[in-house]
């Protein structure tokens, strides 16, 4: 069902609020990743506020869809989205990476209800998602399994083992989303270890592949709907995103992969997000 | 009185030449079928080694609950993690060099830290794999796995005990590692022999032992025959078969060390980090006694017959006897 313009605007304003929380929590943490989480804020918003069949007050609900985060290092955006969706108070986001916090530097399922896996070491999420999807099919369960992964982690061999497995067993209840932001720690993915033609690679492994603008919520949700309609194949959505999205001064800059903003930068970034990069007059932001 | 512990209800042919022999991997085949009948959540994943791991026994019985993974042990561990998160009890089977050798970090993060009930089954462990040579003779798996918090580690002594270990593992909540071997070894236990995860079994006991022989895995039979031979030569011992390396039966180990005052450990594994190390870590902090740790001493294996290799690496009954004798004379 197509979303109305009002619904899209509602989701966009959620994404902006999530980006603001992200900046605030990263500044407070003093370490962590900035670019990837900002780039994925729109997609996490789409999941937690539209796509997922879930219950924030009952995170263990058996019938929920499963959202697996493979590249665990972008967990601040998942935490922020979960908090805004009502899993826990937004204030708890300020405990990110602190001693005793449920919001570990890399996500741990046992510490925070609502996380489906423990992740961080790259290349493992797609297999876990495939395992869940396989078990669901064995039990005749109808819910979906979504797996978010990065582009850089496609360099891990484990990913391709999972791709082969999901293709062989035609796991059509598995929908993977690749955050194609083109950056990784040492530089641009195509310089570090070229992935292209990555869509063709997945097609060759018997996946259905869709490419989409990862910041166009309407298009992304349409891609999910298309994936749901595909039988006998798992689907990969390659979501083209801008690392650092929402803060123009760091967008596309791979150096922001693994560091947080300072207090001063944080103030400036929040202003950029609130004014949508200067497009909204300050007094309204 | 120096004798077999009859409470252990060992094989009627215990010291006979024609004692039944079977590889412990047969226990994997039988045990998974038994566990699969008892609990529909049990599934078996195998990495292109269904026949040699005996996973095909489960496959024949429960084709829908058997998952062929291809030669992809990293994917096998992580898919199993996902299946466990969705309510299954997965047993993952391949050679121990690959499982947990190849997929160790996947096991660490997605199974151990994640605390899901995946049962990692490492086949063809030890030098007794034989002709395949060093690449396929895993000697580091006990060390790798016992270092992981929350991981139970079992090295069954024979095929019958391996069956029980598999059935017991299916009933425990957490992750478990079970080590199996390729070649046929004496089946010294029976279906009546007690098996509880975390408990050692006394196989040989005497009133005034001078040495305690503690063994894990299929060298348990060699350790028992060594205890008997020592007794004939006037050296009394207590022999403990310790299938569960972790959690260690500290009570039994401590009692044996206190009673005998000397401890010999026996395993088909590197001395570094293995079963003997686990015993030494414990005793050194609770009741320090002179010890000899028998195992492979910082070497890789090689091709040969199982008997040739066990002899070469100092792991047969004669070596155990010799180690015990020299230790008590210190």
Question: Mind explaining what this structure looks like?
Answer:
- The complex is a heterodimer of chains A (about 280) and B (about 325).
- Chain A is of the alpha/beta class and about 280 residues long.
- Chain A is about 40% helix and about 10% strand.
- Chain A contains 10 helices and 7 strands.
- Chain A has a 5-stranded parallel beta sheet with strand order 1-2-3-7-6, sandwiched between helices. Chain A has a two-stranded antiparallel sheet with strand order 4-5.
- In chain A, helix 6 (about 155-170) links the parallel strand 2 (about 145-150) and strand 3 (about 175-180).
- In chain A, helix 1 (about 5-30) crosses helix 4 and helix 3 (about 40-50) packs across helix 9 (about 215-230).
- Chain A is globular and about 55 Å long.
- The two termini of chain A are about 30 Å apart.
- The mean pLDDT of chain A is about 95.
- Chain B folds into 2 domains: about 5-10 and about 195-330, Rossmann fold (3-Layer(aba) Sandwich), CATH 3.40.50; about 20-185, Rossmann fold (3-Layer(aba) Sandwich).
- Chain B is built from 12 helices and 15 strands.
- In chain B, strand 5 (about 90-95), helix 5 and strand 6 form a beta-alpha-beta unit.
- In chain B, helix 8 (about 220-230) packs across helix 12 (about 315-330).
- The interface of A and B includes residues 66, 68, 117, 119 and 120 of A.
């Amino acid at each position: 069902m197509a979303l109305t313009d009002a619904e899209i605007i509602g989701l966009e304003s959620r994404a902006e609020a999530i980006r603001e929380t992200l900046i605030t929590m990263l500044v407070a943490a003093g370490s962590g990743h900035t670019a990837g989480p900002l780039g994925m804020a729109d997609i996490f918003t789409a999941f937690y506020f539209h796509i997922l069949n879930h219950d924030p007050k009952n995170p263990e609900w058996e019938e929920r869809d499963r959202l697996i985060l493979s590249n665990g290092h972008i967990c601040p955006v998942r935490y922020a989205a979960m908090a805004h969706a009502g899993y826990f108070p937004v204030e708890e986001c300020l405990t990110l990476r602190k001693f005793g916090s449920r919001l570990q530097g890399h996500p741990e399922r046992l510490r925070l209800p609502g996380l489906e896996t423990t992740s961080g070491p790259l290349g493992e999420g797609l297999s876990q998602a495939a395992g869940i999807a396989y078990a669901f099919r064995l039990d005749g369960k109808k819910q979906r399994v979504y797996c978010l992964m990065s582009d850089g982690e496609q360099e891990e061999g484990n990913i391709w083992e999972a791709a082969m497995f999901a293709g062989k067993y035609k796991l059509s209840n598995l929908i993977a989303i690749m955050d194609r932001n083109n950056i990784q720690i040492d530089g641009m993915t195509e310089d570090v270890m070229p992935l292209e033609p990555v869509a063709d690679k997945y097609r060759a492994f018997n996946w259905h592949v869709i490419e989409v603008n990862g910041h166009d919520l309407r298009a992304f949700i349409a891609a999910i709907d298309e994936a749901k309609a595909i039988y006998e194949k798992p689907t990969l959505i390659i979501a083209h995103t801008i690392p650092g999205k929402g803060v123009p001064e760091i967008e596309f800059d791979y150096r922001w992969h693994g560091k947080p903003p300072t207090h001063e930068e944080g103030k400036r970034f929040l202003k950029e997000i609130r004014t949508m990069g200067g497009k909204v007059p300050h007094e309204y932001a | 009185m120096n004798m077999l512990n009859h409470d252990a209800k060992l094989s009627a042919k215990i010291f006979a030449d024609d004692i039944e022999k079977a590889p412990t991997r047969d226990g994997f085949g039988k045990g998974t079928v038994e566990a699969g009948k008892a609990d529909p959540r049990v599934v078996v994943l195998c990495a292109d080694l269904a026949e040699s791991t005996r996973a095909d026994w489960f496959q024949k019985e429960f084709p829908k609950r058997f998952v062929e993974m291809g030669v992809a042990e990293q994917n096998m561990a992580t898919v199993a993690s996902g299946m466990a998160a969705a309510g299954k009890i997965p047993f993952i089977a391949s050679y121990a060099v690959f499982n947990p050798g190849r997929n160790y970090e996947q096991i660490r993060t997605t199974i151990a830290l994640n605390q899901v009930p995946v049962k990692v089954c490492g086949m063809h462990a030890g030098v007794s794999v034989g002709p395949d040579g060093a690449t396929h003779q895993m000697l580091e798996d006990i060390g790798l796995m016992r270092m992981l918090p929350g991981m139970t580690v079992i090295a069954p002594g024979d095929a019958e005990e391996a069956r029980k270990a598999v059935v017991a593992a299916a009933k425990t909540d957490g992750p478990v590692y079970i080590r199996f071997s390729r070649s046929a070894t004496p089946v010294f236990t029976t279906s009546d022999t007690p098996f509880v995860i975390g408990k050692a079994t006394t196989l040989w006991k005497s009133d005034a032992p001078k040495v305690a022989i503690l063994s894990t895995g299929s060298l348990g039979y060699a350790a028992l025959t060594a205890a008997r031979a020592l007794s004939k030569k006037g050296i009394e011992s207590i022999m403990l078969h310790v299938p569960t390396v972790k959690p260690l039966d500290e009570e039994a180990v401590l009692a044996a060390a206190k009673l005998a005052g000397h401890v010999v450990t026996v395993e088909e594994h590197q001395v570094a980090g293995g079963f003997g190390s686990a015993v030494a870590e414990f005793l050194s902090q609770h009741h320090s006694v002179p010890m000899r740790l028998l195992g492979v001493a910082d070497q890789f294996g090689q091709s040969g017959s199982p008997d040739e290799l066990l002899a070469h690496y100092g792991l047969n009954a004669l070596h155990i006897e010799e180690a015990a004798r020299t230790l008590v004379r210190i």
